[in-house]
Amino acid sequence: MTDKIDIAFGPLGQAGQGDLVVFMGDDLALGAPARDALGGAGADLVAKAAASEKFKGRSLSAMVLPAPAGLPIDRLVVVGLGSNTDRGKLDWPVLGGFTASKVSGRTARIVLDLPGVATGPEQAAAFALGARLRTYTFDRYKTKKKPDAEDKAGTSLTILAADHAAAAREDEGARSLAESVILARDLVNEPPNVLYPEEFARRAGELTKLGVEVEILEPARMRDLGMGALLAVAQGSVREPRVVVMRWNGGTAGEAPVALIGKGVIFDSGGVSIKPGGGMEDMKGDMGGAAAVVGAMRALAARKARCNVVGAIGIVENMPDGGAYRPSDILTSMSGQTIEVINTDAEGRLVLADVITHVVRSAKPKAMIDLATLTGAIIVALGQDIAGMFSNDDGLAEKIRAAGEATGEAVWRMPLIPAYDKAIDSKFADMKNTGGRHGGAATAASFIKRYVEDVPWAHLDIAGVAMSSNASEINRSWGAGWGVRLLDRLIRDNYEAH
Ligand code: BES
Ligand code: MN
Ligand code: ZN
Fold it and tell me: According to the model, what pLDDT value does residue 149 have?
């Protein structure tokens, strides 16, 4: 749903109608291209208006002015950049998102020449990325659109930049990345009656158009493989589960892939250990990990990433039913390890266990990252602005931390110690599926660790960040599409031949 915004590029002096956007820092100085676009009268108007409107040029503040005399524009929008020192760490997508919100539903020229900041093609594309992400809303099921909504359709931006041709080329990548994040957002926002496992698998299957090899495993095949843990979770639902394996082979033939694994519980009622009713509707987002993996595979394929990546997602619905699995059941996972079920609401780790075993054994990855809305405990620990990371490999953990810092999808490393592993020992089986109330995110991570064998691995618990997301300058959607940009960046910076 990027059709709400249209972005073009042009040279700094390009004339036009509609709104004009210029930038200034807290020194209230306009750059030369902005002054040229405004003319002398315009520059005077900006100075006077700043004084009377108490516009201080603070970062992410804006002043909207009527057209200066003699300029054939509708409105003049001045966006603040903060102090010179702040500008060194300017977040381009955030600036783009903020700016887009000020000209929503309108036609605007944006003079992307920021006084005191390098503004090359890469920065222009990052700005455009933020503008696209900000403009997304999930309104497929609204039969009446609100006329005063911030996200009005028909926003048309022309970004005026020094090297506009190069910026436009760079923007092809940004546009595709935005579409991949938006794919993940759509998947998270869709309700489970529409997006049941088979339909989720079908949508992932559309990646074949971009050259991704997609294999969809049905229950019979899962039974042959011995996926007793995943199948147990699915057995209370009338919807059949699916496992989708996506392979992007853009690297050297035969080179070990990086594996991305996603939890795809399309709805988590808790099963027999049913959740309280209040807020249960949020559990349509329990497939945020799988959505991030599908979005990342799309991003990698669209830009023909030079690496081998396998994405695998387990898609199930967790429901209570006469045929549902129950506390005290003992399951045999594909790895051969047995699991005593204590709580049917600890289902995500059961799904991940079998998908991980399948990938470890069939693809022999050189690194593996799983993403899962796994525990409420990680939200208690870290809140909704940062994901929890558990890893058996310091090098991989650092790469992920750095990628998250670069894209603004922050992760914080959490500990894995023997005590957590001990907490999931079972009286009757090799392990149990919960480790008690204390350290819930960590005992869940320890459970997954028992399936990764010797692969360098990181687990991202994204329960706090993937859904019910805080509004930001680049996201107004319930499902943020968290992780797509992080994974794309991680692979670009560390696993591709350049
Ligand atoms: N999907 C939930 C975790 C979750 C909670 C995600 C809130 C997003 C928001 C997961 O399957 C779950 O139910 N976890 C339980 C584990 C417990 C039974 C050991 C939890 O966190 O309470
Ligand atoms: Mn659950
Ligand atoms: Zn769940």
Answer: 65
Pocket (CB within 6 angstroms of ligand 1): 268, 286, 343, 345-348, 373-377, 434, 440, 463
**Could you please report the per-residue DSSP string of 200-231?**
HHHHHHGGGGGT-EEEEE-HHHHHHHT-HHHH
pLDDT digits (tens, 9 = 90+) for 66-94: 998 889 999 999 999 999 888 888 999 99
Hey, where are the domains in the chain?
5-164, 180-494
| Confidence label for 381 from pLDDT (cuts 50, 70 and 90) | very high
Fold of the domain built from segment(s) 5-164: Leucine Aminopeptidase, subunit E; domain 1 (3.40.220)
d(CA 333, CA 242): 16
Using alpha carbons, select from 20, 72, 28 the residue that is nearest to residue 48: 28
377 C-alpha to ligand 1 centroid (Å): 8
Average pLDDT, stretch 237-244? Answer: 98
Spatial separation of the C-alpha atoms in residues 292 and 297, rounded to whole Å? 9
Q: What share of the chain is helix, strand, coil (3-state, %, to 5)?
A: 40, 20, 40
- Give the span between the Cα atoms of 418 and 81, in whole angstroms: 48
Gap between the Cα atoms of 100 and 79, Å rounded: 11
